[in-house]
Amino acid sequence: MKRLLQIGFKKVGTWQLENDLPVFNLEVEADSRNILYSFISNEEIYYIGKTAQILKKRMYGYQNPGPTQSTNIKNNKFIQEKLNKGDSVEIYALPDNGLMHYGGFHLNLAAGLEDSLVASIKPHWNKTGK
Fold it and tell me: Running DSSP on this structure, what letter comes out for residue 5?
């Protein structure tokens, strides 16, 4: 987790149980796009993802997964299991500040970093991290 904090990740919200189901609460960055996010429990990184949509819409997908959304279904289950054990699940994020450019083109920080972070950190819930 220290590595994520060093590159600028910050806590933006939490997952909680309501009526035995995981529900997210975002304190900041809810409307940010092109954002990297991570699910952290007991200071351990469990998942790293990116989204081009606003963060609250992406979290809503995990909270209410559709029948064919395998990643959303899987992470919803994992989040619920952690919360049922009494563990906290926090949401950390690294927004794209729009300052990175190459040859006049904007570099999407989330798209550029996700694969490297997952390969290096190997979070438990990332398919490629197992």
Answer: H
Closest by alpha carbon to 15, among 95, 119, 85?
85
pTM higher than 0.90, yes or no? yes
What sign has the CA pseudo-torsion 11, 121, 55, 94?
positive
Per-residue pLDDT of 23-32, as tens digits, reads 999 999 999 9
Phi, psi values for residue 103, rounded to 5°: 60, 30
For each of the domains in the chain, give its residue range(s) and CATH number, in order of start: 2-129 (3.40.1440.40)
Q: List strand residue ranges (DSSP E) for the chain, in order.
A: 10-18, 21-26, 35-41, 44-51, 89-95, 101-102, 105-106
C-alpha to C-alpha distances, 46 to 81, 107, 109, nearest whole angstrom: 13, 26, 20
Contacts of 95 (CB under 8 A, 6+ apart): 29, 32, 34, 35
